[in-house]
What we know:
It contains 21 helices and 20 strands. The chain is an alpha/beta fold. Among the domains are: 1-118 and 203-283, Rossmann fold; 129-199, no CATH class. Strand 7, helix 8 and strand 8 form a beta-alpha-beta unit.
Amino acid sequence: xxxxxVASRTTxxxxxxxxxxxxxxxxxxxxxxxxVKNLRVSFAGKEVVRGIDFFIAPGERLALVGESGSGKTxxxxxxxxxxxNAEVSGQALFTGPEGASELLSMPERALRGIRGxxxxxxxxxxxxxxxxxxxxxxxxxxxxxxxxxxxxxxxVQVAIKLLANxxxxxxxxxxRSFPHQLSGGQRQRAMIAMALACQPKLxxxxxxxxxxxxxxxxxxxxxxxxxxxxxxxxxLMITHDLxxxxxxxxxxxxxxDGHIVEQGSVADVFAVPQHPYTRRxxxxxxxxxxxxxxxxxxxxxxxxQASHIRVTYPVAVPGVRGxxxxxxxxxxxxxxxxxxxxxxxxxxGESGSGKxxxxxxCLGLLPFSGQLQAAGQSWSRQAARNKTIRRAVQxxxxxxxxxLSPRMTVEAIVEEGLRVHExxxxxxxxxxxxxxxxxxxxxxxxxxxxxxxxxxxEFSGGQRQRLAIARALIINPSLLVLxxxxxxxxxxxxxxxxxxxQRLQRERGLSYLLITHDVDVIRAMAHEVMVIKDGEVVEAxxxxxxxxxxxxxxxxxxxxxx
Length: 562
């Protein structure tokens, strides 16, 4: 039976669970901002959070780390009773401006007053948390107006300032943008601005820097640290990024299978981890295991080649001129590259630099100028002519929750490519192929009973990303476009997925166009790398040459921050 922590402070913990270091439980201050006792969360009788205890002092930064599915996000959501169809028990004692409250049993109306004002949350997937029908500025201003009682005009000004504080350029223009018009990192920063709008005493941050590149990640951490010092705000940080934990947190609690197995100061836990699971997390840095061969032969044909790719978006021109003409925003300018069989081209840069835009153009999903061929064929405006190229080029998107239909079962999602490209295949054959593809990404019926009949919302963020990879692999493409394929994964699963992609490349000769902001992922996976800043390729070449001896100042900054 899995180990559990006991509620009593004086009873010794059971075998296999490491008690908090430095006598933290015995030395607690009498006035805590939040104290959680024996928290249990169940779904249909199945317990996913199993009697955990932790506390947060005013102004303290606690990191809750663990694999996807370990119960981290459910723990945070349950504190504000935001988990649907869940049975929650235990105590969550919160000391706010109006005194102590028990969050798990207080009336819903009273809890609504605490949400957003005293306790705010940054959600992991901003595309699903933001309303697609309203601009991000209007959504932030609404929170300011409701919770702080400011006028609408003043709330809009505050919203623009909050966006600017999170590092978004041209905050006034971006405030008028809708969520789908922002990059993944920009959407995440808008969520952070919304959470900080009311200067809460406790911030529940669920993977707040997942979609951000390394330079902006540091800016956000500096911003949170400054706001914490200014407002005395405490932070419960849920993350799989151990570098972030080292840099940001005061204490860390390690969570496995619904249990907190080890907790203590960051310095102590990272220096001398006592639990085997903690040691495994710390040892999960991506490992390079690709075939570094000589350049392709002169007669080898590239899987994809691009020449002078340019992507633009129309923008409104201010003033009277806007009545007669539209402006132009250049998202990608003059990109040139080739990808040969069995090779990986990594594309790295800041959020909003044009990485994902380039990937969408390569997939034929955005209009572009220039020349681009994949599998010996150019994209056509007639969809029927693109069937061959769409089979050869598949994609794994950054946000698996929005790319997987919530109305389709896992079986229907993974089999979808077979229905289009191999319509003569029988249902039993498709099901067999689906199970094989799922097993390749580490998901089996033994682990998830009734796997094929489940829906995406029944899985964690990392598990949904594996479903997306399985869907892309099932028709045996020659090129995978990987748009931040591991940004939603914890470090152990990230290492497994990268190892899977490396093995598939060696065995099948797969090629990858890898879009990422993670320098460690580029080092582990790529043969060639392009560095993009503001839509322009500022440096390109062999991965070892570019990352070990960068010439451009921006590349040096990425390598240093990464």
